[in-house]
Design brief:
The protein is α/β, with parallel strands linked by helices. Helices cover 31% and strands 17% of the residues.
């Protein structure tokens, strides 16, 4: 009764866009997870482990009132000032690291618009170096704004949650009316090339995967899929709204690893650190400086960083848990072999690397131009 039948599982694999390696998958990674469990499931976990009472209090921001465990309906618990907590006290963080395999990354700059400069402008000095490095290396960058308007007839539950007061005082975060407020902040303006490629998404949802084109397709999903992205890097705001909604959907239904740039995401409420602690088991986390250093250190090294996927029809490769690289067509380029490449595909890799280098130079030259001068164009993109 509780498990899927084989036919039910096959049906789910055929239609669920989050299935790893499935035909509808948005994120490109396929690590053959069942084989990893068989090989390493008996090893001790290095990302979820018990900690001392003092360390647990420090990490959680919660105080232990009575550390003597008691049994409540089959669960051994201790009492804290935030209620009962299972014992032993555990700490968890996401089970992967940015450098544990080759990654094809895309950066998102979420809701860094003029309307929100009073609340999020302080993030610009942290986002800008990350943005510059992604552009320099020819890695895709996506932008979103917040294009909601009162009375637009869209998603009334979100309006009710935010409330209808506080517009004149500037405390209604959903509806603000700064001149040119829907445009990206000047310091983080998309380039004309990024606009041409559709990298700027006018958004009405907290979850940026929920914004649809005229055909009913997710705009962001189509971008992610077209570039063969497997790791989504999030910056901007709000941490307790758009960031977390997008991150959860990316991980839960889009087969994407999510990296939060901890000092480049923000919110106007006291929830920032609580949100980062709460989701440490689901999302990776690095500072902007750590991420830029990683990108610069491994630039051009396909053991760590992969270029954007080529359009359908190119010779591409995907992850193989064996000693070689599994070659296929219409599948994003991934290698999981510690940088070791099979001699059989060496010539193909060299040819692709040369093409990537040329493409990177071309893209870099285009992106080095000044941002779009006519900002009113954003209203019509």
């Amino acid at each position: 009764m509780g498990d899927f039948s084989p036919s039910e599982r096959d049906a789910i694999r055929a239609v669920d866009p989050g299935i790893e390696g499935g035909p509808q998958a948005v994120g490109a990674a396929n690590l053959h997870y069942a084989e990893l469990i068989r090989q390493h499931g008996d090893q001790a976990s290095d990302n979820i482990f018990p900690v001392s009472n003092a360390e647990w209090e420090q990490r959680s921001g919660t105080r232990i009132i009575n550390a003597t465990p008691l049994n409540v309906s089959g669960t051994m618990v201790v009492r804290t000032d935030h209620g009962l907590v299972p014992s032993p006290l555990m700490y968890g963080q996401v089970g992967w690291t940015v450098g544990d395999r080759p990654r094809r990354m895309a950066l998102m700059v979420i809701e860094m618009i003029e309307d929100y400069k009073p609340y999020l402008g302080y993030l610009v000095p942290k986002i800008k170096p990350v943005l510059n490095e992604f552009r320099k290396q020819g890695l895709p960058v996506f932008f979103t704004n917040w294009a909601r308007r009162p009375g637009d007839g869209l998603y009334g539950a979100l309006d009710r949650a935010n409330g209808y007061k506080g517009v004149s005082s500037g405390t209604n975060f959903q509806y603000t009316y700064k001149d040119g407020g829907l445009l990206p902040m000047n310091e983080l303006m998309p380039t004309s090339e990024e606009l041409r490629l559709g990298h700027f998404i006018k958004s009405i949802h907290l979850d940026k995967f929920a914004d649809l084109d005229e055909h009913g397709n997710s705009k962001l999903s189509e971008l992610v899929r077209s570039y063969g992205v497997d790791t989504l890097v999030l910056t901007g705001g709000w941490t307790d709204a758009c960031i977390i909604a997008t991150a959860m959907d990316a991980m839960d239904t889009k087969n994407l690893d999510v990296l939060l740039v901890s000092d480049a995401v923000g919110t106007a409420t006291p929830n920032q650190q609580g949100i980062l602690r709460t989701f440490s088991l689901m999302f990776g986390e690095q500072t902007s400086q750590e991420l830029v250093q990683h990108l610069r250190k491994h630039e051009g090294d396909m053991s760590y960083l992969l270029p954007p996927a080529k359009p359908s029809g190119q010779l591409l490769a995907r992850y193989s848990m064996g000693s070689g690289v599994e070659i296929t067509s219409n599948t994003p380029w991934h290698i999981l072999s510690g940088g070791a490449l099979l001699a059989a595909v060496a010539s193909a890799l060299v040819g692709l690397a040369c093409g990537v280098a040329v493409a990177r130079r071309s893209q870099s030259e285009r992106m080095e131009g000044s941002p779009c001068e006519d900002q009113s164009a954003f209203l019509h993109v």
